[in-house]
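Bumping with the actual sequence this time:
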Amino acid sequence: MELQRHLSSRTATSTHRLSDARLSCFRIVKASTSQRRVKRLRCSAERIPDEYTLPDVAEFLPLLEKKRQEGRVDGPGCVYLVGTGPGDPGLLTLRAVHLMQSADVVLYDRLVSDDIMRMVHDEARMIYVGKNRSFHTRTQTEIHQLMMQFAERGALVLRLKGGDPYIFGRGGEELLYLQERGIPVRCIPGITAASGISAELGVPLTHRGVATTVRFLTGHSREGGEEDLDETIAKSVDPMATLVVYMGLHTLPSLVKRLVRGGQSVKTPAVAIERGTTIDQRMVYGCLDELAESVKQAELVSPTLIIIGDVVGLSPGWKRYQGSGCALQEGSVDSFLPKGIDFMGTSWGENLSKEKSL
Protein backbone atom coordinates (compact mmCIF):
# COMPACT_ATOMS: atom_id res chain seq x y z
CA MET A 1 0.00 0.00 0.00
CA GLU A 2 1.31 3.39 -0.91
CA LEU A 3 1.85 5.42 2.23
CA GLN A 4 1.40 9.16 1.91
CA ARG A 5 3.15 11.54 4.23
CA HIS A 6 1.20 14.42 5.76
CA LEU A 7 3.19 16.55 8.14
CA SER A 8 2.56 19.99 9.60
CA SER A 9 4.87 22.77 8.45
CA ARG A 10 6.49 22.79 11.87
CA THR A 11 7.27 19.10 11.74
CA ALA A 12 8.39 19.28 8.12
CA THR A 13 11.09 21.81 8.96
CA SER A 14 12.82 19.23 11.12
CA THR A 15 12.95 16.44 8.55
CA HIS A 16 16.22 17.70 7.04
CA ARG A 17 17.87 16.75 10.32
CA LEU A 18 17.11 13.05 9.82
CA SER A 19 20.16 11.04 8.67
CA ASP A 20 22.14 7.79 8.96
CA ALA A 21 20.24 5.15 10.99
CA ARG A 22 17.27 2.96 10.46
CA LEU A 23 13.91 3.22 12.11
CA SER A 24 10.34 2.35 11.27
CA CYS A 25 8.29 5.06 12.94
CA PHE A 26 4.49 5.05 13.00
CA ARG A 27 2.55 8.29 13.11
CA ILE A 28 -1.18 8.85 13.24
CA VAL A 29 -2.44 11.39 10.72
CA LYS A 30 -5.44 13.37 11.92
CA ALA A 31 -7.84 13.12 9.00
CA SER A 32 -11.51 12.21 8.79
CA THR A 33 -12.50 9.05 10.63
CA SER A 34 -12.98 7.16 7.37
CA GLN A 35 -9.63 8.26 5.94
CA ARG A 36 -7.27 7.96 8.91
CA ARG A 37 -4.00 6.31 8.04
CA VAL A 38 -1.09 5.16 10.10
CA LYS A 39 2.09 6.36 8.46
CA ARG A 40 5.26 4.41 8.61
CA LEU A 41 8.08 6.88 8.14
CA ARG A 42 11.30 5.15 7.27
CA CYS A 43 13.76 7.56 8.77
CA SER A 44 17.51 7.43 9.08
CA ALA A 45 18.77 9.29 12.07
CA GLU A 46 21.28 8.72 14.78
CA ARG A 47 18.89 10.53 17.06
CA ILE A 48 15.52 11.83 15.95
CA PRO A 49 14.94 15.40 17.17
CA ASP A 50 12.69 15.76 20.21
CA GLU A 51 10.21 17.94 18.37
CA TYR A 52 9.84 15.24 15.72
CA THR A 53 9.31 12.20 17.94
CA LEU A 54 7.20 14.05 20.50
CA PRO A 55 4.88 16.29 18.47
CA ASP A 56 3.01 18.90 20.50
CA VAL A 57 4.09 17.47 23.86
CA ALA A 58 5.23 20.89 25.07
CA GLU A 59 1.76 22.30 24.32
CA PHE A 60 -0.13 19.27 25.60
CA LEU A 61 1.29 19.18 29.13
CA PRO A 62 -0.03 22.66 30.03
CA LEU A 63 -3.47 21.68 28.72
CA LEU A 64 -3.52 18.71 31.07
CA GLU A 65 -2.35 20.93 33.92
CA LYS A 66 -5.12 23.42 33.18
CA LYS A 67 -7.74 20.65 33.34
CA ARG A 68 -6.27 19.58 36.64
CA GLN A 69 -6.40 23.10 38.10
CA GLU A 70 -9.99 23.54 36.96
CA GLY A 71 -10.93 20.51 39.00
CA ARG A 72 -11.79 18.36 36.01
CA VAL A 73 -9.03 15.96 37.01
CA ASP A 74 -8.65 14.76 40.58
CA GLY A 75 -5.30 13.18 41.50
CA PRO A 76 -2.83 11.49 39.17
CA GLY A 77 -4.03 9.72 36.09
CA CYS A 78 -3.64 6.01 35.53
CA VAL A 79 -1.15 4.27 33.28
CA TYR A 80 -2.37 1.16 31.48
CA LEU A 81 0.20 -1.30 30.18
CA VAL A 82 -1.73 -2.84 27.30
CA GLY A 83 -0.71 -5.93 25.36
CA THR A 84 -1.87 -5.89 21.74
CA GLY A 85 -1.03 -9.50 20.93
CA PRO A 86 1.05 -10.73 17.98
CA GLY A 87 -0.48 -8.42 15.36
CA ASP A 88 -3.96 -9.52 14.30
CA PRO A 89 -6.49 -6.98 15.66
CA GLY A 90 -8.98 -9.81 16.07
CA LEU A 91 -6.86 -11.09 18.95
CA LEU A 92 -7.19 -7.88 20.98
CA THR A 93 -9.11 -7.96 24.26
CA LEU A 94 -12.26 -5.87 24.49
CA ARG A 95 -10.68 -4.03 27.42
CA ALA A 96 -7.74 -3.01 25.22
CA VAL A 97 -10.06 -1.68 22.51
CA HIS A 98 -12.09 0.31 25.05
CA LEU A 99 -8.94 1.98 26.38
CA MET A 100 -7.70 2.73 22.86
CA GLN A 101 -10.94 4.60 22.31
CA SER A 102 -10.64 6.71 25.47
CA ALA A 103 -6.94 7.38 26.21
CA ASP A 104 -5.50 10.88 26.39
CA VAL A 105 -1.95 9.81 25.50
CA VAL A 106 -0.66 6.68 23.75
CA LEU A 107 2.98 5.64 23.88
CA TYR A 108 3.43 2.85 21.36
CA ASP A 109 6.09 0.38 20.29
CA ARG A 110 7.46 -0.71 16.94
CA LEU A 111 5.75 -4.11 17.22
CA VAL A 112 2.20 -2.71 17.40
CA SER A 113 0.70 -3.42 13.97
CA ASP A 114 -0.71 -0.79 11.61
CA ASP A 115 -4.19 -2.33 11.78
CA ILE A 116 -4.23 -2.03 15.57
CA MET A 117 -2.96 1.55 15.49
CA ARG A 118 -5.90 2.53 13.29
CA MET A 119 -8.21 1.67 16.16
CA VAL A 120 -6.89 4.44 18.46
CA HIS A 121 -9.31 7.37 18.53
CA ASP A 122 -8.48 10.58 16.67
CA GLU A 123 -8.01 12.85 19.67
CA ALA A 124 -5.32 10.80 21.42
CA ARG A 125 -1.78 12.19 21.46
CA MET A 126 0.46 9.59 19.82
CA ILE A 127 4.09 9.22 20.91
CA TYR A 128 6.35 6.69 19.25
CA VAL A 129 8.86 5.15 21.67
CA GLY A 130 9.81 2.07 19.66
CA LYS A 131 13.10 0.25 19.70
CA ASN A 132 14.90 -2.06 17.37
CA ARG A 133 18.11 -4.00 17.73
CA SER A 134 20.43 -1.16 16.74
CA PHE A 135 18.44 1.97 17.50
CA HIS A 136 16.23 3.24 20.31
CA THR A 137 14.20 6.40 19.81
CA ARG A 138 13.92 6.69 23.61
CA THR A 139 15.79 5.02 26.42
CA GLN A 140 13.76 3.00 28.91
CA THR A 141 14.40 5.68 31.53
CA GLU A 142 13.00 8.36 29.20
CA ILE A 143 9.90 6.24 28.57
CA HIS A 144 9.39 5.92 32.32
CA GLN A 145 9.66 9.67 32.76
CA LEU A 146 7.25 10.44 29.92
CA MET A 147 4.57 8.18 31.38
CA MET A 148 5.03 9.75 34.79
CA GLN A 149 4.87 13.31 33.40
CA PHE A 150 1.56 12.70 31.69
CA ALA A 151 0.05 10.71 34.56
CA GLU A 152 1.02 13.39 37.12
CA ARG A 153 -1.13 15.83 35.19
CA GLY A 154 -4.14 13.54 35.33
CA ALA A 155 -3.95 11.96 31.88
CA LEU A 156 -5.19 8.48 31.05
CA VAL A 157 -1.98 7.04 29.62
CA LEU A 158 -1.83 3.99 27.39
CA ARG A 159 1.43 2.12 26.96
CA LEU A 160 0.77 -0.05 23.91
CA LYS A 161 3.04 -3.07 23.55
CA GLY A 162 3.17 -5.97 21.16
CA GLY A 163 2.35 -9.35 22.69
CA ASP A 164 1.93 -9.34 26.47
CA PRO A 165 3.50 -6.60 28.64
CA TYR A 166 4.85 -9.09 31.18
CA ILE A 167 6.44 -11.57 28.75
CA PHE A 168 9.72 -10.08 27.53
CA GLY A 169 7.95 -6.73 27.31
CA ARG A 170 9.68 -4.86 30.17
CA GLY A 171 6.26 -4.24 31.67
CA GLY A 172 7.54 -5.19 35.11
CA GLU A 173 10.16 -2.44 35.02
CA GLU A 174 7.57 0.17 34.07
CA LEU A 175 5.18 -1.11 36.74
CA LEU A 176 7.76 -0.81 39.52
CA TYR A 177 8.99 2.64 38.40
CA LEU A 178 5.50 4.13 38.40
CA GLN A 179 4.27 2.41 41.57
CA GLU A 180 7.28 3.66 43.50
CA ARG A 181 6.26 7.20 42.54
CA GLY A 182 2.62 6.84 43.47
CA ILE A 183 1.23 6.47 39.96
CA PRO A 184 -1.64 3.97 39.59
CA VAL A 185 -0.79 1.23 37.08
CA ARG A 186 -2.92 -1.48 35.54
CA CYS A 187 -1.89 -4.25 33.15
CA ILE A 188 -4.19 -5.44 30.37
CA PRO A 189 -2.79 -8.77 29.18
CA GLY A 190 -2.28 -9.56 25.53
CA ILE A 191 -2.02 -12.87 23.72
CA THR A 192 1.69 -13.54 23.72
CA ALA A 193 3.32 -14.40 20.40
CA ALA A 194 3.95 -18.00 21.47
CA SER A 195 0.24 -18.67 21.93
CA GLY A 196 -1.13 -16.62 19.06
CA ILE A 197 1.35 -17.73 16.41
CA SER A 198 1.43 -21.40 17.40
CA ALA A 199 -2.38 -21.48 17.23
CA GLU A 200 -2.28 -19.85 13.80
CA LEU A 201 0.18 -22.44 12.50
CA GLY A 202 -1.52 -25.43 14.06
CA VAL A 203 1.41 -26.15 16.39
CA PRO A 204 0.18 -27.42 19.78
CA LEU A 205 2.68 -26.19 22.35
CA THR A 206 1.97 -29.25 24.49
CA HIS A 207 0.81 -32.64 23.27
CA ARG A 208 0.37 -35.88 25.15
CA GLY A 209 3.33 -38.15 24.53
CA VAL A 210 5.22 -35.48 22.59
CA ALA A 211 5.67 -32.37 24.74
CA THR A 212 4.92 -32.11 28.45
CA THR A 213 6.34 -28.64 29.02
CA VAL A 214 6.82 -25.28 27.27
CA ARG A 215 9.73 -22.95 27.85
CA PHE A 216 9.85 -19.31 26.75
CA LEU A 217 13.38 -18.10 26.03
CA THR A 218 14.90 -14.84 24.90
CA GLY A 219 17.62 -14.85 22.30
CA HIS A 220 18.74 -11.41 23.39
CA SER A 221 20.56 -10.83 26.66
CA ARG A 222 21.10 -7.60 28.53
CA GLU A 223 24.61 -6.17 28.44
CA GLY A 224 26.86 -8.43 30.48
CA GLY A 225 24.26 -11.19 30.72
CA GLU A 226 25.62 -13.54 28.06
CA GLU A 227 26.78 -16.18 30.54
CA ASP A 228 23.40 -16.27 32.25
CA LEU A 229 21.72 -16.70 28.87
CA ASP A 230 24.09 -19.55 27.95
CA GLU A 231 23.26 -21.32 31.18
CA THR A 232 19.51 -20.85 30.70
CA ILE A 233 19.62 -22.26 27.18
CA ALA A 234 21.72 -25.24 28.27
CA LYS A 235 19.20 -26.07 31.02
CA SER A 236 16.31 -25.84 28.56
CA VAL A 237 17.30 -28.87 26.50
CA ASP A 238 14.67 -31.56 26.96
CA PRO A 239 13.29 -33.94 24.28
CA MET A 240 9.82 -33.54 25.81
CA ALA A 241 9.92 -29.74 25.84
CA THR A 242 8.75 -27.16 23.34
CA LEU A 243 11.12 -24.20 23.16
CA VAL A 244 9.80 -20.81 22.04
CA VAL A 245 12.46 -18.18 21.40
CA TYR A 246 11.64 -14.46 21.35
CA MET A 247 14.06 -11.94 19.81
CA GLY A 248 16.28 -14.75 18.56
CA LEU A 249 16.55 -13.93 14.87
CA HIS A 250 20.01 -12.36 14.93
CA THR A 251 21.45 -14.85 17.39
CA LEU A 252 19.92 -17.95 15.80
CA PRO A 253 23.21 -19.57 14.65
CA SER A 254 24.75 -19.31 18.11
CA LEU A 255 21.47 -20.38 19.73
CA VAL A 256 21.46 -23.57 17.66
CA LYS A 257 25.06 -24.32 18.62
CA ARG A 258 24.25 -23.88 22.31
CA LEU A 259 21.25 -26.19 22.11
CA VAL A 260 23.12 -28.90 20.21
CA ARG A 261 26.03 -28.61 22.62
CA GLY A 262 23.52 -29.15 25.44
CA GLY A 263 22.18 -32.32 23.85
CA GLN A 264 19.33 -31.17 21.59
CA SER A 265 18.93 -33.40 18.52
CA VAL A 266 19.96 -31.69 15.29
CA LYS A 267 16.92 -33.28 13.63
CA THR A 268 14.41 -31.60 15.95
CA PRO A 269 11.63 -29.95 13.86
CA ALA A 270 11.64 -26.17 14.05
CA VAL A 271 10.00 -23.14 12.46
CA ALA A 272 10.79 -19.43 12.34
CA ILE A 273 7.82 -17.10 11.84
CA GLU A 274 8.08 -13.50 10.67
CA ARG A 275 5.21 -11.14 11.54
CA GLY A 276 3.00 -13.99 12.70
CA THR A 277 -0.83 -13.69 12.52
CA THR A 278 -0.62 -10.76 10.08
CA ILE A 279 -1.12 -10.62 6.32
CA ASP A 280 2.68 -10.33 5.99
CA GLN A 281 3.33 -13.63 7.76
CA ARG A 282 6.20 -15.76 6.43
CA MET A 283 7.39 -19.07 7.83
CA VAL A 284 10.60 -21.06 7.43
CA TYR A 285 10.49 -24.74 8.39
CA GLY A 286 13.42 -27.08 8.85
CA CYS A 287 15.33 -29.36 11.17
CA LEU A 288 17.34 -27.57 13.82
CA ASP A 289 20.67 -27.96 12.00
CA GLU A 290 19.21 -26.46 8.79
CA LEU A 291 17.10 -23.66 10.23
CA ALA A 292 19.67 -20.87 10.54
CA GLU A 293 20.81 -21.18 6.91
CA SER A 294 17.24 -21.42 5.61
CA VAL A 295 16.25 -18.32 7.59
CA LYS A 296 19.24 -16.45 6.18
CA GLN A 297 18.32 -17.39 2.61
CA ALA A 298 14.70 -16.35 3.16
CA GLU A 299 15.90 -13.00 4.56
CA LEU A 300 13.43 -12.98 7.43
CA VAL A 301 13.27 -9.76 9.41
CA SER A 302 12.21 -8.83 12.92
CA PRO A 303 9.85 -9.56 14.57
CA THR A 304 10.48 -13.28 14.13
CA LEU A 305 9.47 -15.98 16.61
CA ILE A 306 11.19 -19.38 16.68
CA ILE A 307 9.51 -22.59 17.82
CA ILE A 308 11.63 -25.71 18.37
CA GLY A 309 10.29 -29.13 19.28
CA ASP A 310 8.65 -32.30 17.99
CA VAL A 311 5.24 -30.60 18.16
CA VAL A 312 6.24 -28.58 15.08
CA GLY A 313 6.15 -31.88 13.20
CA LEU A 314 2.41 -32.14 13.91
CA SER A 315 1.55 -28.96 12.01
CA PRO A 316 0.16 -28.72 8.46
CA GLY A 317 3.08 -26.46 7.50
CA TRP A 318 5.62 -29.14 8.42
CA LYS A 319 3.77 -31.67 6.30
CA ARG A 320 3.83 -29.27 3.35
CA TYR A 321 7.54 -28.74 3.92
CA GLN A 322 8.21 -32.46 3.89
CA GLY A 323 6.13 -32.93 0.76
CA SER A 324 7.62 -30.07 -1.24
CA GLY A 325 11.06 -29.65 0.27
CA CYS A 326 10.47 -25.89 0.24
CA ALA A 327 11.40 -24.35 3.60
CA LEU A 328 9.77 -20.95 3.01
CA GLN A 329 5.99 -20.67 3.15
CA GLU A 330 3.90 -17.55 2.89
CA GLY A 331 0.26 -17.08 3.68
CA SER A 332 -2.10 -14.22 4.41
CA VAL A 333 -4.09 -14.44 7.59
CA ASP A 334 -7.75 -13.41 7.79
CA SER A 335 -8.78 -11.46 10.85
CA PHE A 336 -11.13 -13.17 13.26
CA LEU A 337 -13.49 -10.20 13.01
CA PRO A 338 -16.43 -11.02 10.69
CA LYS A 339 -16.37 -9.09 7.43
CA GLY A 340 -18.60 -6.04 7.40
CA ILE A 341 -19.04 -5.83 11.17
CA ASP A 342 -19.49 -2.29 12.46
CA PHE A 343 -16.66 -2.39 15.01
CA MET A 344 -16.37 0.70 17.26
CA GLY A 345 -18.17 2.80 14.67
CA THR A 346 -16.32 1.63 11.55
CA SER A 347 -16.83 -1.15 9.02
CA TRP A 348 -13.41 -2.28 10.02
CA GLY A 349 -13.53 -5.92 8.92
CA GLU A 350 -14.87 -4.95 5.49
CA ASN A 351 -12.28 -2.20 5.02
CA LEU A 352 -9.43 -4.50 6.00
CA SER A 353 -10.68 -7.12 3.54
CA LYS A 354 -10.65 -4.51 0.75
CA GLU A 355 -7.10 -3.45 1.65
CA LYS A 356 -5.91 -7.03 1.47
CA SER A 357 -7.26 -7.36 -2.07
CA LEU A 358 -5.34 -4.29 -3.34
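The C-alpha coordinates above came from a reply further down the thread. The chain has a mean pLDDT of 78.
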